[in-house]
Amino acid sequence: MTRKATSELTTKKVSMGDKIKGFHLKYRPQPNPDNTDWLSWLSSYTLPGILIISTLSILAFWNTLDNGFVWDDQYIVVANKAIRELSLPNIWDFFTSKDVYNFAAGDIYRPLSILSYAFEYRLYGLDSTGYHLTNLIIHTLNSILVYLTIGLISKDRLIAFVTSLLFVVHPIHTEAVAWVKERDELLTLLFFLLALYFYIRRSFNPQGSGQTLRPASTSPYILALLFYILALLSEEMAITLPFILILHDACFSVNRMRRPKDWLAYLPFFGSSGFPVGSPLWKRGVRGDL
Predict the structure, then answer these.
(1) How far apart are CA 100 and CA 254, in angstroms?
(2) How large is the C-alpha radius of gyration of the chain?
(3) Which residues lie below 8 Å from residue 254, measured CB to CB, with a gap of 6+?
(4) Which residues, other chains included, contact 208 with Cβ-Cβ below 8 Å and sequence gap of 6+?
(5) How far apart are CA 133 and CA 180, in angstroms?
(6) CA dist list (Å): 178 to 60, 70, 171
(7) pTM for this entry
(8) What residues contact 89, with CB distance under 8 A and at least 6 apart?
(9) Is the pLDDT of residue 135 over 60?
(10) Considering only CA atoms, which of 130, 126, 100 is closest in space to residue 112?
(11) Average pLDDT over residues 58-80
């Protein structure tokens, strides 16, 4: 083999090696230290959107503040003596006694909603305006969280803003906002969205594509798990969150699901899902009902 042919072959080998190396660097998950200031990125465009969304929510549901207590509100709030004392033993009962619901609806376990009524009774007594105001505030927060979460997923300001506008005024939310008893629905969505938001935030990269991920952070993950537990304590429908996390990763963060050990991140969420099933039985046992 001539010297010229050897040189050409070496050049080809180097070129092919560079291509392979470049492909590997392009598609492997890697840190992005230039985009760690996520709060600055967030505040750069969300404040005007948040103000508009909040204003629209208040305008859409302001008239609910004049509503009174209706239907199940009479049992769960008005005639419920359990919410009239906000003490540590009473709060413990919210989490362990089925009698605090004052409502024959089977074995439901939603202690955070009952706790919220107890706080409101301390503040407003039986003035229904305060209870409706709380619902309006939570719905506004939920709409803002839809805006922030869709912004993280899509990295598109317009998509996030339009989605949140549709959410905040959609008539399907009328019953949840206007009916005091539906507090459990609003609280569940609040903590559900917070859990989803922080789960996505743990590897957030505002300028990267779906092929580039920052290393997963521990603090947002712990917050996501904590908010998931709070969602479960608000209503059992929150049990769907672990499946939503898997669906999100399958669609937007494929790199996170490549190795078997990557799936271990879902186990604490599935493990916490025992609350809706186990808690009613557990509280019966604590109260001596079994």
Answers:
(1) 45
(2) 25
(3) 210
(4) 32, 35, 214
(5) 10
(6) 11, 10, 11
(7) 0.76
(8) none
(9) yes
(10) 100
(11) 88
The structure tokens 């743990």 sit at 202
Q: How far apart are the C-alpha atoms of 86 and 165, rounded to whole Å?
A: 37
CA dist., res. 105 & res. 127, Å (int): 25
On whether the CB atoms of residues 131 and 110 are closer than 8 A, the answer is no
In tens, the pLDDT along 204-224 reads 544 444 434 444 567 888 999
Three-state SS string across 126-189, please?
Answer: CCHHHHHHHHHHHHHHHHHHHHHHHHHHHCCHHHHHHHHHHHHHCHHHHHHHHCHHHHHHHHHH
The span from the CA of 227 to the CA of 230, in Å, is 5
Q: Which two tokens stand for residue 24?
A: 């590997």
Alpha helices in 28-110 (DSSP H): 38-61, 73, 88-96
- Report CA 37 to chain centroid distance, whole Å: 22
> What is the spatial distance between Cα 145 and Cα 53, in angstroms, rounded to a whole number?
10
Model confidence at 58: pLDDT above 70: yes
Tokens coding 281: 């039985």
Confidence at residue 257, expressed as pLDDT on a 0 to 100 scale: 61
